Amino acid sequence: MQLALDFLNFIRGVYQNTYMIRNMVIRDIRARYIGSFLGIFWSIIHPLTQLLVYYFVFSVILKVKLGPEYETTNFAIWLVAGLLPWMFFAEVFTRSPGIILEQSSIITKTLFPSEILSLTLIVAAMINHFIGVILFISFLLIFGYSITLNILLIIPFLLATAIFALGISWMLSALNVFLRDIGQIIGVFVNIWFFLTPIIYPRYLIPENLQFFYGLNPMLYSVEGYRVGLLGSTNLNIEGLSYLVLMGLSTFALGGLIFKKLKPSFADVL
């Protein structure tokens, strides 16, 4: 019971610092593009370049065919729909290990609520994500694709993915203070995770004996959910969404507890 109360107080402390979170998000976005001639347009150029490379390799060279549920959908459209939630998650995942170290001067000198750093990272990544979603929807409309109310289905998948990412961020940022190798490992791990998620290839290509193990990957359902919401070519996987929510809440709770446990020692180690 005491553990649950402590965790609720921890979450309440995060909520009470919304003003600070907002200011830090604004500072993060400005710092990312300050001094750059193209500014925030780099948030469009980078994923667009990545998309063109993937499209050329998998659609032009390898000529990967989509399953029957998406057979009328252009491969590039299908690919971007799956990349959107992954790029949001990967941004949080790769930046998380260093966020405590980056603010070490503040954490060691003041009573700074370091738990809000992960939430700041989530909000900043979500702003970039919204830009990508708006651009993608505009692209669909320009090229004659219809937008239905199914698009609202991406909301629960985004929220579940954000909760999942927040728990992981708390975990990685806290552990990296004591085990600095985590920051080096993450770059390799995120690439492996990417290719183990059916983003650039259809799920039906996965061998039957591996389908169960692929199904343990929460991001599989986030990617599929976005494709259902944006392309609407298949039915919503309720079980997949439920699993993503369950994994998100479990990771959120575990990450919060780990962060709360290690936080008192941050100043001594930093």
Can you tell me about this structure?
This protein is mainly α. It has one domain. 71% of the residues lie in helices and 0% in strands. It has helices at 2-15, 18-33, 42-61, 75-95, 99-102, 104-107, 116-142, 154-178, 181-195, 211-214, 218-231, 238-262, 266-269. Helix 4 packs parallel to helix 8 (154-178) and helix 8 runs antiparallel to helix 11 (218-231). The longest helix has 27 residues, at 116-142. The chain is globular and about 60 Å long. The model has no long low-confidence stretch (mean pLDDT 84).
Which sequence of SSEs, written as H and E, runs from N to C?
HHHHHHHHHHHHH
Oligomeric assembly: single chain
Count of separate structural domains: 1
Globally, the shape reads globular
| Tally of helical runs | 13
Q: How many strands in all? A: 0
Helix content: over 70%
Q: Unreliable segments (pLDDT under 50, ≥5 consecutive)?
A: none
As a whole number of angstroms, the C-alpha radius of gyration is 20 Å
Give the tags.
globular
Question: In summary, what is this structure?
Answer:
The protein is an all-alpha fold and 270 residues long. Helices cover 71% and strands 0% of the residues. It has helices spanning 2-15, 18-33, 42-61, 75-95, 99-102, 104-107, 116-142, 154-178, 181-195, 211-214, 218-231, 238-262, 266-269.
Helix and strand layout, with pairings?
Blueprint lengths: L1 H14 L2 H16 L8 H20 L13 H21 L3 H4 L1 H4 L8 H27 L11 H25 L2 H15 L15 H4 L3 H14 L6 H25 L3 H4 L1
Helix pairs in contact: 2-7, 3-4, 4-7, 4-8, 4-9, 4-11, 7-8, 8-11, 8-12, 11-12
